[in-house]
Prior knowledge:
Blueprint: E1 4-7, H1 27-34, E2 38-41, H2 43-46, E3 56-58, H3 64-68, E4 74-76, H4 83-99, E5 104-107, E6 118-120, E7 128-130, H5 134-141, E8 145-148, H6 152-163
Parallel strand pairs: 1-2, 1-5, 5-8
Antiparallel strand pairs: 3-4, 6-7
Helix pairs in contact: 4-5
Bound molecules: iron/sulfur cluster.
Amino acid sequence: MERILVSACLMGRRVRYDGGAKTSSDAWLAGWREEGRLVPFCPEVEGGLPIPRPAAEIEGGAGGAAVLSGAARVLATDGSDVTAEFLSGARAALETARSHGIRLAVLKEGSPSCGALAVYDGSFEGRRVPGQGVTTALLERNGIRVFSEEQVPQAADYLRTLET
Ligand code: SF4
């Protein structure tokens, strides 16, 4: 059975920067959870950041690939540089995925770690730009397909292709 990496906050775990969750009511995710497919993971907590923690954004909205290459940092609202923690969390997510033989993930949209289609632009003014989070970029670079929480039907289609 194919396992699926999923953002822990979508599964109701209170791991977000504000101490809350973003529990998904998606029927596909509920079904996969019943089947025991889901591997919940929070890269930011596993990377060593506390709950709660200051919100963070990728500088310039540059996207996860720029962080992986050292061209951009991840900065928090208190001015601290949390790039190392984000990179550590992304590597831990990749290790966890590999240890389960995982080939697809469904992650929380808009996050500087988990975003698949969009991230915030680094201004902390609530503006999204197209781009990926740091964990998403590292997973995709290593052959793991990442779908946004807004693309779960596409993830289901992809799962079907893996299992046929
Ligand atoms: Fe959710 Fe990902 Fe943010 Fe953790 S890093 S709280 S899993 S969006």
